[in-house]
Design a protein that fits this description.
Elements (H helix, E strand, L loop, with lengths): L2 E7 L20 H8 L7 E2 L5 E3 L1 H9 L4 E7 L3 H15 L4 H11 L5 H8 L7 H10 L2 H8 L5 H8 L3 H13 L4 H18 L3 H7 L2 H4 L5 H13 L1 H16 L6 E5 L8 E5 L4 H12 L2
Parallel strand pairs: 2-4
Antiparallel strand pairs: 1-4, 2-3, 5-6
Helix pairs in contact: 1-2, 4-6, 7-9, 8-10, 10-13, 13-14
Amino acid sequence: MSASLIMLPLDLLRIDPRRRLSWPSSGEDRGESLGKRFPGLPLIVVNSGDRVIWGECRLEFLKKHKKASALVIKTAISPLQSLFLGFNLMQAFFSVNLYEKLYFAALALEEAKPEEIRSHTGLDIPLNPGLIAQLPTLLSRDFALLLREGRISLPAARELAALAANSRRPLLDLMTAVHFTASQGLRLVAMVREILARDGCEVNDVLRRAELDTALHHQRPADTVLMRLHALRFPMVTAAEKEWRERVEKLELPPRIHVRHAPFFEPPGIQVSLDLSDLEALRRLVEILKNG
C-alpha cells in the first residue's frame, strides 16, 4: 500500500453514501472536533479515485465553512482494506456507536468472513449467524436513531428485532420517547415478550394495560413503566409484595430498622438490617437478644 500527502480541491472528493462509515449521534460534531484536537494534520483519507475512505465529517465541515481545498492522504488500496482502514481510524479517533459497528459489519461481511473482520479491526460485536440474519432489520430506519444515540443495547435491539414489525413499532416509539438504560431496555422488551407469549395479545394492549399515557408524565417515567409492566408480568408476586409492605408498615418499625425479602419471596426468609451508632450499641443489642 502506497500513500502520499496532497492538497486537493474539495469539489473533487467524493463520498459514497453506501460505504460511508461515520454515522454520529445528533449532538456529536466530528468535523469540528477533529480540527480542534488535531490542528494542521491531514484529516481526510482518499483512495486513488478520490473517494473518501475516512473523514467524511471533516470534508462536510470544511465545505460548510466555504473552504476550497484541504491536505489529504491519498492511498492505493483495495475496497475491503479501505473498509478496514476507515473503521480502524474511526475507532482510534472517536467512540464508535452501535449503529456504526453494525453498518460496518454488514459492509465488511459482503467481502470477508467474520474471523477476518475481527482480526483486522477488533470489532467487539458477535458476528454469529443469528446476528448476521438480523442485520437488515437492525440497520433499518426504525432502529437507526436509537442505535446512533446509544439509547438501546444490542441484546435489547435483538429482542425487538425478533418481534413482528407491527409489534416492535410501539416499543421503538416508547424507547425513543423515554430514556431507558441498557439493562432497563432489555427488561422492558423481555417482559413485554413474556406477556405476549402468555396472554396472546398485542403490544399496544400490553402498553394500554400498563397505562402508558400516565406513566410518561411521572418524574421517572422509565422506572414507572417497568414497575407497571412488572405488575402485569407477575401479578401474584405484585399482590404478595403489596401485602408484605402493608404488614411491615403495621409493625411500625423505627426508621433505622430495614427489612427485606428475597426476590419473588424465594426463599421465604427475610433479612433485617439495623443502623447503630457504635459497637457499644451493638453490644447492648446482643445482650438483649441473648436474654430473650
